[in-house]
TrEMBL record:
Residues 1-26 have a biased composition (Basic and acidic residues). This is Proteasome subunit beta. Belongs to the peptidase T1B family. GO terms for cellular component: cytoplasm; proteasome core complex, beta-subunit complex. Its EC number is 3.4.25.1. GO terms for molecular function: threonine-type endopeptidase activity. The formation of the proteasomal ATPase PAN-20S proteasome complex, via the docking of the C-termini of PAN into the intersubunit pockets in the alpha-rings, triggers opening of the gate for substrate entry. Interconversion between the open-gate and close-gate conformations leads to a dynamic regulation of the 20S proteasome proteolysis activity. GO terms for biological process: proteasomal protein catabolic process.
Amino acid sequence: MHDSQPEFSRARDRLEPDLPPVHEPRLGSLPDSGADENGDVAKTGTTTIGLTTADGVVVATDRRASLGGRFVSNKRVQKVEQIHPNAALTLVGSVGGAQSFIRTLRAEVNLYESRRGTDMSMKALSTLAGNFARGGPFFAINPILGGVDDEGAHVYSIDPAGGVMEDEYTVTGSGLTVAYGTLEDRYEPGMDTDDAVAAAAASVQAAAERDTGSGNGLYIAVVDESGVDITSYDEYEDAF
């Protein structure tokens, strides 16, 4: 019978029999870094909100990054980025994974536009984002995609398994339970942009009062047919 164990493994077993067995690397596997994803990786914690308006979409996020929700590692993280001429995406989960996800999507959008000479639709962009979330190396992300195309305004939540759900408004992140209560009380279909910004800011503020992973002001992205405008606020009231 053929012995598939490498010669170096048999020699090692004879010389050092008390050591654990050797396992050869396998395709698709990565070595254990030894870091605890829940404690040693910088995460955005986060409250992120997306809602449709009469003219487009409003996306709002807080600015805090934390280590396991116990230590504030950064107070000015921009958690919403433009990834398309008329779309923005939030960062939720591990900072590295979320930033890599945004860079990858932005590159694919630019490639699509240069090859086809037209902007990617929101349906196509949300499908692409879901496919990347499911199949890519982007662990622990749960972003919101908000954008405008020829069919109108769209808001999608994208779960870590690649599920894509469209709604008039949505919330993701550690502060979602508190933020949802405030947002559902204030949201009205077809509301104007100023009222939507105020509702989103109040919802992030409410979450920051109770959620240790959220806080330190907010970023608000207003998306319409003319593009994406992102503004930072040190105080929540300044956005009202």
